[in-house]
Specification:
This is Lytic polysaccharide monooxygenase. The protein has about 375 residues and is α+β, with helices and mostly antiparallel strands. It folds into two domains: about 250 residues, Coagulation Factor XIII, Chain A, domain 1 (Distorted Sandwich), CATH 2.70.50.70; about 90 residues, no CATH class. Helix content is about 15%, strand content about 25%. The protein has four helices and 22 strands. It has a six-stranded mixed beta sheet, with no helix packed on it. The protein is elongated. The chain starts with a helix and ends with a strand. The N terminus is likely disordered.
Protein backbone atom coordinates (compact mmCIF):
# COMPACT_ATOMS: atom_id res chain seq x y z
CA UNK A 1 0.00 0.00 0.00
CA UNK A 2 1.40 3.42 -0.98
CA UNK A 3 1.98 5.94 1.78
CA UNK A 4 0.35 9.39 1.74
CA UNK A 5 3.74 10.93 1.01
CA UNK A 6 4.28 8.66 -1.99
CA UNK A 7 0.83 9.46 -3.39
CA UNK A 8 1.42 13.17 -2.91
CA UNK A 9 4.76 12.99 -4.69
CA UNK A 10 3.21 10.96 -7.53
CA UNK A 11 0.40 13.49 -7.93
CA UNK A 12 3.00 16.25 -8.02
CA UNK A 13 4.89 14.50 -10.80
CA UNK A 14 1.69 14.13 -12.82
CA UNK A 15 0.91 17.83 -12.39
CA UNK A 16 4.45 18.75 -13.44
CA UNK A 17 4.20 16.50 -16.51
CA UNK A 18 0.90 18.10 -17.51
CA UNK A 19 2.37 21.57 -17.16
CA UNK A 20 5.31 20.56 -19.35
CA UNK A 21 3.13 19.87 -22.38
CA UNK A 22 2.58 22.44 -25.11
CA UNK A 23 -0.25 24.96 -24.80
CA UNK A 24 -1.06 27.89 -27.10
CA UNK A 25 -0.06 31.18 -25.47
CA UNK A 26 -0.47 33.82 -28.22
CA UNK A 27 -3.15 34.56 -29.33
CA UNK A 28 -4.88 34.09 -25.96
CA UNK A 29 -6.85 30.83 -26.13
CA UNK A 30 -10.36 30.19 -24.89
CA UNK A 31 -10.68 29.01 -21.31
CA UNK A 32 -10.42 25.26 -21.63
CA UNK A 33 -13.62 23.50 -20.66
CA UNK A 34 -11.86 20.57 -18.99
CA UNK A 35 -8.41 19.48 -17.87
CA UNK A 36 -5.80 18.53 -20.42
CA UNK A 37 -5.62 21.39 -22.95
CA UNK A 38 -2.11 20.17 -23.72
CA UNK A 39 -3.27 16.62 -24.42
CA UNK A 40 -3.98 15.46 -27.98
CA UNK A 41 -7.49 15.28 -29.37
CA UNK A 42 -9.33 12.09 -28.50
CA UNK A 43 -8.62 9.24 -30.99
CA UNK A 44 -12.37 8.92 -31.57
CA UNK A 45 -12.77 12.64 -32.31
CA UNK A 46 -15.32 13.27 -29.56
CA UNK A 47 -13.61 16.53 -28.54
CA UNK A 48 -13.16 17.85 -32.11
CA UNK A 49 -12.87 20.75 -32.59
CA UNK A 50 -10.90 22.80 -30.02
CA UNK A 51 -10.97 20.02 -27.39
CA UNK A 52 -14.63 20.79 -26.66
CA UNK A 53 -15.91 18.04 -24.34
CA UNK A 54 -19.12 16.21 -25.30
CA UNK A 55 -22.14 18.11 -24.01
CA UNK A 56 -20.39 21.50 -24.14
CA UNK A 57 -21.65 23.92 -26.79
CA UNK A 58 -19.86 27.14 -25.96
CA UNK A 59 -16.29 27.99 -24.96
CA UNK A 60 -15.64 30.77 -22.47
CA UNK A 61 -13.48 33.68 -23.60
CA UNK A 62 -10.58 34.54 -21.31
CA UNK A 63 -10.66 38.34 -21.24
CA UNK A 64 -11.17 39.83 -24.70
CA UNK A 65 -10.65 38.42 -28.21
CA UNK A 66 -7.22 39.13 -29.67
CA UNK A 67 -7.46 42.00 -32.20
CA UNK A 68 -5.82 41.34 -35.59
CA UNK A 69 -5.49 43.59 -38.65
CA UNK A 70 -5.44 42.06 -42.13
CA UNK A 71 -1.92 42.12 -43.54
CA UNK A 72 -0.16 43.05 -40.30
CA UNK A 73 2.33 40.65 -38.58
CA UNK A 74 0.87 38.33 -35.94
CA UNK A 75 2.62 36.09 -33.40
CA UNK A 76 2.12 32.39 -32.64
CA UNK A 77 3.76 31.32 -29.36
CA UNK A 78 3.47 28.51 -26.81
CA UNK A 79 4.27 27.47 -23.25
CA UNK A 80 5.60 24.05 -22.22
CA UNK A 81 8.45 21.69 -23.00
CA UNK A 82 7.01 18.49 -24.56
CA UNK A 83 7.51 19.46 -28.23
CA UNK A 84 7.88 15.80 -29.36
CA UNK A 85 10.68 16.61 -31.80
CA UNK A 86 8.64 19.30 -33.52
CA UNK A 87 6.36 18.38 -36.40
CA UNK A 88 3.98 20.24 -38.72
CA UNK A 89 1.35 22.83 -37.79
CA UNK A 90 -1.44 24.83 -39.40
CA UNK A 91 -3.26 28.04 -38.48
CA UNK A 92 -6.88 28.22 -39.60
CA UNK A 93 -10.06 30.26 -39.07
CA UNK A 94 -13.77 29.58 -38.76
CA UNK A 95 -16.42 32.29 -38.27
CA UNK A 96 -17.71 33.24 -34.83
CA UNK A 97 -16.85 32.11 -31.32
CA UNK A 98 -18.90 28.90 -31.16
CA UNK A 99 -17.15 26.25 -33.28
CA UNK A 100 -18.88 22.90 -33.61
CA UNK A 101 -18.34 19.55 -35.28
CA UNK A 102 -19.53 20.84 -38.66
CA UNK A 103 -17.40 24.01 -38.63
CA UNK A 104 -15.10 24.43 -41.62
CA UNK A 105 -11.66 25.76 -40.72
CA UNK A 106 -9.90 27.61 -43.56
CA UNK A 107 -6.08 27.40 -43.48
CA UNK A 108 -4.32 30.77 -43.60
CA UNK A 109 -0.77 29.63 -42.77
CA UNK A 110 1.13 26.31 -42.71
CA UNK A 111 4.42 25.35 -41.03
CA UNK A 112 5.87 22.12 -42.39
CA UNK A 113 8.55 20.77 -40.04
CA UNK A 114 10.04 22.54 -37.02
CA UNK A 115 6.79 23.36 -35.19
CA UNK A 116 6.47 24.06 -32.28
CA UNK A 117 10.25 23.77 -31.97
CA UNK A 118 12.98 23.86 -34.62
CA UNK A 119 15.71 21.20 -34.96
CA UNK A 120 14.83 19.26 -31.81
CA UNK A 121 15.54 15.56 -31.41
CA UNK A 122 13.12 15.27 -28.51
CA UNK A 123 11.65 17.66 -25.93
CA UNK A 124 12.96 20.95 -24.59
CA UNK A 125 15.13 21.18 -21.48
CA UNK A 126 14.22 23.24 -18.44
CA UNK A 127 14.68 26.93 -19.16
CA UNK A 128 14.09 26.49 -22.91
CA UNK A 129 10.97 27.77 -24.65
CA UNK A 130 9.21 26.72 -27.85
CA UNK A 131 9.93 28.81 -30.93
CA UNK A 132 7.85 31.84 -31.91
CA UNK A 133 6.32 32.00 -35.39
CA UNK A 134 4.97 34.87 -37.50
CA UNK A 135 2.00 34.94 -39.86
CA UNK A 136 -0.60 37.37 -41.17
CA UNK A 137 -4.35 37.39 -41.70
CA UNK A 138 -4.46 37.39 -45.52
CA UNK A 139 -6.54 39.43 -47.93
CA UNK A 140 -9.70 37.55 -48.76
CA UNK A 141 -10.73 37.10 -45.11
CA UNK A 142 -13.80 39.20 -44.34
CA UNK A 143 -13.39 41.43 -41.24
CA UNK A 144 -15.29 40.05 -38.24
CA UNK A 145 -15.08 37.64 -35.31
CA UNK A 146 -13.39 34.26 -35.76
CA UNK A 147 -12.16 31.22 -33.91
CA UNK A 148 -8.47 30.74 -34.73
CA UNK A 149 -7.25 27.16 -34.51
CA UNK A 150 -3.68 25.90 -34.09
CA UNK A 151 -3.39 22.25 -35.11
CA UNK A 152 -0.23 20.15 -34.71
CA UNK A 153 0.86 16.73 -35.98
CA UNK A 154 3.90 15.82 -33.83
CA UNK A 155 7.00 14.15 -35.29
CA UNK A 156 7.75 11.79 -32.37
CA UNK A 157 5.26 9.95 -30.17
CA UNK A 158 3.94 6.60 -29.03
CA UNK A 159 0.95 6.64 -31.39
CA UNK A 160 -0.47 8.86 -34.14
CA UNK A 161 -1.88 12.00 -32.54
CA UNK A 162 -3.34 15.40 -33.38
CA UNK A 163 -3.21 18.43 -31.10
CA UNK A 164 -5.51 21.45 -31.26
CA UNK A 165 -5.93 24.69 -29.31
CA UNK A 166 -8.31 27.51 -30.26
CA UNK A 167 -8.47 31.25 -29.61
CA UNK A 168 -11.08 33.99 -30.21
CA UNK A 169 -9.84 36.76 -32.53
CA UNK A 170 -11.42 39.90 -34.00
CA UNK A 171 -10.23 40.71 -37.53
CA UNK A 172 -10.32 44.22 -38.98
CA UNK A 173 -9.23 45.81 -42.27
CA UNK A 174 -6.16 47.99 -42.66
CA UNK A 175 -6.38 51.24 -44.60
CA UNK A 176 -4.47 49.61 -47.45
CA UNK A 177 -6.93 46.72 -47.57
CA UNK A 178 -9.85 49.16 -47.71
CA UNK A 179 -8.16 51.07 -50.54
CA UNK A 180 -7.76 47.85 -52.52
CA UNK A 181 -11.45 47.08 -52.08
CA UNK A 182 -12.39 50.56 -53.24
CA UNK A 183 -10.35 50.09 -56.43
CA UNK A 184 -12.27 46.88 -57.19
CA UNK A 185 -9.15 44.86 -57.97
CA UNK A 186 -9.18 42.23 -55.26
CA UNK A 187 -9.69 38.73 -56.68
CA UNK A 188 -11.68 35.87 -55.23
CA UNK A 189 -9.59 33.68 -52.95
CA UNK A 190 -9.96 30.14 -51.78
CA UNK A 191 -8.33 28.58 -48.73
CA UNK A 192 -7.76 24.84 -48.16
CA UNK A 193 -9.59 23.16 -45.32
CA UNK A 194 -7.56 22.21 -42.25
CA UNK A 195 -5.77 18.84 -42.36
CA UNK A 196 -7.36 16.30 -40.00
CA UNK A 197 -5.89 12.96 -38.95
CA UNK A 198 -5.78 10.43 -36.12
CA UNK A 199 -9.26 11.31 -34.77
CA UNK A 200 -11.40 8.52 -36.20
CA UNK A 201 -14.38 9.24 -38.41
CA UNK A 202 -13.97 13.00 -37.90
CA UNK A 203 -10.87 12.75 -40.09
CA UNK A 204 -12.27 10.10 -42.42
CA UNK A 205 -9.98 7.45 -40.93
CA UNK A 206 -6.84 9.31 -42.07
CA UNK A 207 -3.71 8.36 -40.06
CA UNK A 208 -0.10 9.60 -39.92
CA UNK A 209 1.28 6.19 -38.95
CA UNK A 210 3.99 6.03 -41.62
CA UNK A 211 5.35 9.47 -40.78
CA UNK A 212 5.42 8.61 -37.07
CA UNK A 213 7.31 5.36 -37.73
CA UNK A 214 9.84 7.24 -39.85
CA UNK A 215 9.98 10.08 -37.27
CA UNK A 216 9.53 12.65 -40.03
CA UNK A 217 7.34 15.73 -40.12
CA UNK A 218 4.56 15.58 -42.70
CA UNK A 219 4.08 17.68 -45.82
CA UNK A 220 0.37 18.57 -45.89
CA UNK A 221 -1.67 17.55 -48.97
CA UNK A 222 -3.17 21.08 -49.15
CA UNK A 223 -0.88 23.56 -47.36
CA UNK A 224 -2.25 26.72 -49.00
CA UNK A 225 -0.34 29.71 -50.36
CA UNK A 226 1.39 30.76 -47.11
CA UNK A 227 3.90 28.06 -46.11
CA UNK A 228 7.08 28.10 -43.98
CA UNK A 229 9.77 25.39 -43.84
CA UNK A 230 11.92 26.18 -40.76
CA UNK A 231 13.98 23.00 -41.24
CA UNK A 232 13.90 22.88 -45.03
CA UNK A 233 12.04 20.34 -47.14
CA UNK A 234 14.50 17.42 -47.38
CA UNK A 235 13.17 15.50 -44.37
CA UNK A 236 9.45 15.91 -44.93
CA UNK A 237 7.26 12.90 -45.73
CA UNK A 238 4.29 13.44 -47.99
CA UNK A 239 1.10 12.44 -46.24
CA UNK A 240 -0.71 9.77 -48.33
CA UNK A 241 -4.29 10.32 -47.11
CA UNK A 242 -6.06 13.61 -47.80
CA UNK A 243 -7.05 14.36 -44.22
CA UNK A 244 -9.91 16.57 -45.32
CA UNK A 245 -12.84 14.30 -46.15
CA UNK A 246 -15.67 16.85 -46.08
CA UNK A 247 -14.06 20.01 -47.44
CA UNK A 248 -12.23 20.43 -50.74
CA UNK A 249 -11.49 24.10 -50.19
CA UNK A 250 -13.25 27.04 -48.62
CA UNK A 251 -13.89 30.19 -50.71
CA UNK A 252 -13.37 33.29 -48.60
CA UNK A 253 -16.56 34.90 -49.89
CA UNK A 254 -18.86 31.98 -49.12
CA UNK A 255 -21.01 32.00 -45.94
CA UNK A 256 -18.87 29.20 -44.49
CA UNK A 257 -16.00 31.69 -44.06
CA UNK A 258 -17.47 35.19 -44.38
CA UNK A 259 -18.24 36.54 -40.91
CA UNK A 260 -20.55 39.31 -39.70
CA UNK A 261 -18.42 42.31 -38.74
CA UNK A 262 -18.75 44.33 -35.55
CA UNK A 263 -19.82 47.95 -35.48
CA UNK A 264 -17.85 50.45 -33.36
CA UNK A 265 -18.45 53.83 -31.80
CA UNK A 266 -16.19 56.83 -32.28
CA UNK A 267 -14.21 55.73 -29.23
CA UNK A 268 -13.56 52.30 -30.72
CA UNK A 269 -15.76 50.40 -28.27
CA UNK A 270 -17.80 47.58 -29.78
CA UNK A 271 -21.51 48.30 -29.55
CA UNK A 272 -22.83 45.29 -31.45
CA UNK A 273 -21.25 41.93 -32.18
CA UNK A 274 -22.93 39.29 -34.31
CA UNK A 275 -20.49 36.38 -34.82
CA UNK A 276 -21.54 34.02 -37.58
CA UNK A 277 -22.22 30.47 -36.53
CA UNK A 278 -22.60 27.46 -38.74
CA UNK A 279 -26.28 27.08 -37.88
CA UNK A 280 -27.16 30.67 -38.81
CA UNK A 281 -25.03 30.39 -41.93
CA UNK A 282 -26.86 27.30 -43.14
CA UNK A 283 -30.20 29.03 -42.63
CA UNK A 284 -29.08 31.70 -45.11
CA UNK A 285 -27.69 29.35 -47.76
CA UNK A 286 -31.07 28.51 -49.33
CA UNK A 287 -32.09 32.18 -49.56
CA UNK A 288 -28.64 33.17 -50.80
CA UNK A 289 -28.68 30.51 -53.53
CA UNK A 290 -32.07 31.77 -54.78
CA UNK A 291 -30.83 35.35 -54.72
CA UNK A 292 -27.69 34.50 -56.68
CA UNK A 293 -29.80 32.74 -59.30
CA UNK A 294 -31.91 35.89 -59.69
CA UNK A 295 -28.80 38.04 -59.89
CA UNK A 296 -27.29 35.71 -62.48
CA UNK A 297 -30.39 36.25 -64.66
CA UNK A 298 -29.99 40.00 -64.27
CA UNK A 299 -26.30 39.86 -65.23
CA UNK A 300 -27.06 37.72 -68.30
CA UNK A 301 -29.71 40.21 -69.41
CA UNK A 302 -27.31 43.12 -69.05
CA UNK A 303 -24.53 41.25 -70.86
CA UNK A 304 -26.80 40.64 -73.87
CA UNK A 305 -27.27 44.39 -74.20
CA UNK A 306 -23.54 45.05 -74.37
CA UNK A 307 -23.07 44.58 -78.13
CA UNK A 308 -19.70 46.34 -78.54
CA UNK A 309 -16.72 47.46 -76.44
CA UNK A 310 -16.80 51.00 -75.07
CA UNK A 311 -14.79 53.31 -77.42
CA UNK A 312 -11.62 54.82 -75.97
CA UNK A 313 -12.47 58.32 -77.15
CA UNK A 314 -16.14 58.43 -76.27
CA UNK A 315 -17.11 56.39 -73.22
CA UNK A 316 -20.72 55.26 -73.24
CA UNK A 317 -22.86 56.21 -70.25
CA UNK A 318 -23.39 53.41 -67.74
CA UNK A 319 -26.47 51.26 -68.04
CA UNK A 320 -29.07 52.41 -65.54
CA UNK A 321 -29.56 49.34 -63.36
CA UNK A 322 -32.14 48.80 -60.66
CA UNK A 323 -30.89 48.20 -57.13
CA UNK A 324 -30.34 44.41 -56.73
CA UNK A 325 -32.50 42.66 -54.14
CA UNK A 326 -31.88 39.83 -51.72
CA UNK A 327 -29.55 39.10 -48.79
CA UNK A 328 -25.81 39.56 -49.12
CA UNK A 329 -22.62 39.54 -47.05
CA UNK A 330 -21.17 42.85 -45.87
CA UNK A 331 -18.27 43.97 -48.09
CA UNK A 332 -19.29 41.67 -50.98
CA UNK A 333 -19.27 43.05 -54.54
CA UNK A 334 -21.72 42.25 -57.36
CA UNK A 335 -20.61 42.55 -60.98
CA UNK A 336 -23.19 44.15 -63.32
CA UNK A 337 -20.98 44.16 -66.44
CA UNK A 338 -20.20 47.91 -66.65
CA UNK A 339 -21.41 48.65 -63.14
CA UNK A 340 -21.03 47.15 -59.68
CA UNK A 341 -22.92 47.11 -56.40
CA UNK A 342 -21.53 46.88 -52.84
CA UNK A 343 -23.23 45.03 -49.98
CA UNK A 344 -23.65 47.24 -46.91
CA UNK A 345 -25.74 46.33 -43.90
CA UNK A 346 -26.79 43.08 -45.58
CA UNK A 347 -28.34 44.87 -48.59
CA UNK A 348 -27.10 45.73 -52.06
CA UNK A 349 -26.52 49.44 -52.71
CA UNK A 350 -27.33 51.39 -55.87
CA UNK A 351 -25.06 50.33 -58.77
CA UNK A 352 -21.99 52.45 -59.53
CA UNK A 353 -20.23 52.74 -62.91
CA UNK A 354 -16.85 51.14 -63.58
CA UNK A 355 -14.04 53.10 -65.20
CA UNK A 356 -14.26 53.78 -68.95
CA UNK A 357 -13.08 50.97 -71.24
CA UNK A 358 -13.54 48.32 -68.54
CA UNK A 359 -16.10 45.75 -67.54
CA UNK A 360 -16.30 43.06 -64.87
CA UNK A 361 -16.97 39.32 -64.81
CA UNK A 362 -17.62 36.70 -62.18
CA UNK A 363 -20.94 37.58 -60.52
CA UNK A 364 -20.62 38.30 -56.78
CA UNK A 365 -17.62 37.89 -54.50
CA UNK A 366 -15.09 39.52 -52.19
CA UNK A 367 -13.77 41.65 -55.08
CA UNK A 368 -14.37 42.24 -58.77
CA UNK A 369 -12.53 40.77 -61.71
CA UNK A 370 -12.15 43.96 -63.78
CA UNK A 371 -10.85 43.64 -67.36
CA UNK A 372 -10.36 45.98 -70.32
CA UNK A 373 -13.27 46.12 -72.77
CA UNK A 374 -11.05 46.83 -75.77
Amino acid sequence: MRSTGTLTAYAGLLALAAQAHIILETPTPFKFAEYGPSNPLSPDGRDWPCKIPPGTTKLEIDGSPTPMVIGEPQTLSFTGHAVHGGGSCQISLTPGFEPNKKSKFAVIHTIEGGCPAINRKGNLDDGENPNIYNYTIPDGITPGDYTLAWTWLNRIGGQPEMYMNCAPVSVSSSSKARQRREKQVEKRKQFPGVFMANIGEASGGCLTTEALKAQQAIAFPHPGDSVDHPEGTDNLIRQPCDGNPDNNGVPADEPAIASSSSSSTATGTKTETQPSTLSSTKEQVSTLSTTKAQLSTLVTSLASEATAPVPHTSPAPPVASAVPTGLCTNGEFLCLVTQFSICTGGKWKAPQPLAADTHCTGGSGVGLNVVNSA
